[in-house]
Amino acid sequence: MDKLIIQGGSCIKGEIRISGSKNSALPILAATLLASDPIQICNLPHLNDITTMLALIRCMGVDVIVDEKMSVEINPNTIKELEAPYELVKTMRASILVLGPLLSRFGEARVSFPGGCAIGSRPVDIHLRGLEAMGAEIEVDGGYIHAKAPNGLKGAHFYMETVTVGGTENLLMAAVLAKGKTVLENAAREPEVVDLAECLVAMGAKIEGIGTDHLVIEGVEKLNGCTFSVMPDRIETGTYLVAAAATGGSVTLRDTRADILEVVLLKLEEAGAEITSGEDWIRLDMHGRRPKAVNLTTAPYPAFPTDMQAQFTAMNAVAEGTSTVTETIFENRLVQTHELNRMGANISLKGNTAVVTGVEKLKSAPVMASDLRASASLVIAGMVAEGDTVVDRIYHIDRGYECIEEKLQLLGVNIRRVPG
Ligand code: UD1
What pTM value is reported for the model? Predict the structure, then answer.
């Protein structure tokens, strides 16, 4: 297993380009299955999860052509299998996102049941109940979800008792080809849901209320092809901003947007950062200062994102003052604090809250990544630690950060990958 070695004492300085959003690209790739013509998706990040989603689409018999700039052309008309096999689903839970499109367009789907993962139990009950409300017959057998709608899905009025990003995306994709009107209440408002909805609209879908928690979808007969460019990755953007803030550095990020990161930027300002932005860039400057501790509580968009919690916890670990970090979305997402404590942080857990007392410096130690964002927080910790930090199990990081060593090296960090 590859490891990353990070030399401590780095101060981030420079400029990099932000990649396309992983969490937007995954549902959009699933949505291509809905089109009746070939469809082109651009600005895909070069990441393992994207490769897995393309492999999944390909294993259904769908023609996929990828060019050197990571644009893909997908022709769903060549589909032969309506199945997402266990071998692929087990490596990426987001494979569940093909369920809605397959069922809606082809009337049937067999998708391996995604299990829990390191950050929590992550059920898909709301996805399934929503599809049932739209007339699907669902059986779970041999670890597979077998869904059928021989006469097509029909519009429904459905309330999601928990705000779920994937659930909203799956049901939105199911509704665009269902007969009649679907209303999704308490829908997720994350920018990635908006990006998916805009892609569906470009394909000819009729959706109202985009960006709100009340989505109204009028089913259409068929969807056409289009060319769509995936939005910038707000979590990658936020991660590099936090890295700069934690190290007292300055960074300019290109090809990204400030409007999708509002709370994160406000929290960074509270930590003492000077932030400026234009239409497609964000600049953060700490002017060499140590960050101030900031309290935060994760919640669905537009509140503070759970995917930025671990990185802020690492920054708070070396900040001036004491902070509380409360995780409300996933039950097991503060585990990286034990690794930070092994590096000399002072963090105690009380239920789903971490109390972080900032220390002047962390000390290097061999640490292990447990999930994608936790790995990013350990890399940030490595930059502000004394000595060389070895982060193990970095396959997690490769799922979500394109060219992380190259980008950090461009920003002046001494980081290298060693094969394990
Ligand atoms: C997506 C993101 C992930 C992010 C998360 C929350 C992708 C590929 N992943 O994951 O990076 O951390 O949103 O912003 O976009 N839940 C249920 N029943 C369901 C579905 C969800 O109880 O049927 C619960 C989950 O256990 C969790 C909460 O709802 O506690 C939110 O999960 P959800 O928004 O669905 O996360 P994902 O879409 O899996």
Answer: 0.97
Identify the residue whose tokens are 């209440």: 185
Annotated catalytic residue, options 117, 199, 226, 403:
117
Q: What angle do CA 298, 303, 305 make, to 5 degrees?
A: 50
Amino acid at 88: L
Torsion angle (degrees, nearest 10) of CA 168, 173, 179, 180: 50
Of ligand 1's listed atoms, the one at least distance from the Cα of 372 is 11
122: CA distance to ligand 1 center in Å?
7
Residue entry with tokens 């009746």: 36
| In contact, 297 and 328? CB cutoff 8 Å | yes
From 147, 191, 197, select the one nearest 172 (Cα to Cα).
197
Distance CA 273, CA 14 (A): 16
CA distances from 388 to 111, 251, 384 (A): 43, 23, 10
The pLDDT tens digits for 188-213 are 999 999 999 999 999 999 999 999 99
> Whole-angstrom Cα distance, residue 300 to residue 355?
22
